[in-house]
Design a protein that fits this description.
Blueprint lengths: L15 H8 L3 H9 L6 E2 L5 E2 L2 H15 L4 H47 L7 H8 L8
């Protein structure tokens, strides 16, 4: 149930005893959370549960929420909303980046239009005019 990522946070590292110690939970509690789909640790070749750093952080969040009196159904809902919000934030960042790229392209096109408008039109293509303005040869090769 952990989101996929490219960083090392999702790399399975910790056996259940270590994960239990890191989170202050009993190993059986971790098994119950896995059965309920709250956490999905990786598995070794020998089928041993291996928890990633992201799993540990998720378990700590579950512990914090349950300590505040939220039941497991509420925890599932909160975690789902949090993951969706994180995904939306990533999408917004990607879209902002794309908008900046498009703004730069529009700016460049407008600059070319302004420069081209300064040159006398003699039936040449805009590229020839640009080359002429920039000091290159106006003639075709």
């Amino acid at each position: 149930m952990s989101p996929e990522g490219t960083d090392g946070r999702n790399k399975p590292l910790y056996m259940i005893s270590v994960a239990a110690e890191l989170t202050g939970m009993h190993p059986q509690t971790l098994r119950v959370y896995e059965q309920k789909g709250l956490v999905n640790p990786g598995r070794s070749r020998g089928n041993t549960r291996l928890y990633s750093q992201a799993d540990i952080e998720r378990l700590n969040l579950i512990s914090k929420l349950t300590d505040e009196g939220i039941n497991l159904a509420g925890v599932v809902r909160i975690i789902d909303m949090r993951e969706r919000a994180d995904e939306r934030d990533r999408e917004i960042d990607e879209l902002r980046h794309r908008v900046r790229e498009l703004e730069d392209e529009v700016h460049e096109m407008r600059m070319r239009e302004r420069i081209t408008a300064l040159a006398p039109y003699d039936g040449s293509s805009p590229e020839k005019v640009m080359r002429g303005l920039l000091g290159g040869s106006v003639e075709d090769k």
